[in-house]
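For the sake of clarity, the format in which proteins appear in this thesis is described at this point. The record quoted next illustrates the convention:

___
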Amino acid sequence: MSFVRSTIPVAVLLASIGFLCFGLIDLLAGKLFGQFVADPRSATFLSALLGGAIGYGIGWSVIRKYGLPHNATPYDVDAAADRAKQS
């Protein structure tokens, strides 16, 4: 797990988590885009894209909150949060 935390940027990590979670939710329950799109595969894909976009947006806002570059890892965000807490 430390390999993932040390190499993958925060925005990409949260986007992949959102992509996976939203896609699985729609695949298993059909509650997101499954209500509006007749083809279940298209609905799952659209839900996964939405989840990826939401995750990337959250990651981007966290990075910008601390003034970090786009390739900041979770360790960088933790260090920035600790510095902000101390000052």
